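Field reference: sequence -> structure
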Amino acid sequence: MVDVTKPIVISADSFRLSNETFQCRTARLVNMTFPVCLYTAKTDHIVTSLLQRGIYYEGDEVSRLIRLFRRDRRLQFVDIGANVGLYSLPAARVTQVLAVEPNWRSVYRLAKAVYLGDIASNITLIHNAVSDVRATRNMGVHPRNQAFAFLINSTKCRVTPTNKICNTLPPTRTILLNDLLPLMRSKKALLKVDVEGHEVNVFTNPTAAQFFDHIEVPVVLMEWNWCKKHATDTVQRLINFFYSRGYAAFSLNNHKVEKHYISWPDNIVFKKSPHIFF
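Structure field:
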């Protein structure tokens, strides 16, 4: 019987199971060079297309994280929605990483980059989605933006949350944030969460409080653009999860956001100290 509380850990050489061939190229960031395995520009017009032109997507944010890991060696990195590893791959060169990604096509690419970069000892790869239930769910993905992968409640994806056409991905198993605790290698961690609006389901008291009770989390970097589109009580529940634990919301420029959450920027940071991170 499958233990539904146990995350699916995959090995760095699992990419050999794929029937795809991956283009991998050398990326450069914060005085480091490392392989990243990509899609084609036709099927991934943001991350892949930019890297092919020598532009590292969200490179400024990743660079700031790397500097923080170098300042505090106790920090482990938990990357929920890792995609092909733009955050996890450089982070694994300076700290321990737990990378969670539900899209098998992205997991294979991340695994091959880990294998080529010889960093398997520093990174744990998880093929799950993090949610508020333990279940098996289907997924959809934008055909030209592979990072835009999301859980769906039907057998076939009809439209993306932005009413664009979408493709259907194989099912994935969902776990809780609490289920990651046995895989943690430190009692202090920084979380980055990019799950296309599903953040409201990741951070609930029944499913995530235990993680925060056992792990010191000074910073949570979160995509906010899709979160704020949920019903008001759902968004407020997410905000209260952090406010009740002493966090405040900041912009990436380190300005505390005081306005209504609907006016918050597309990416925010929940943190307890006004000085840490940025």
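Note: The chain has seven helices and 14 strands.
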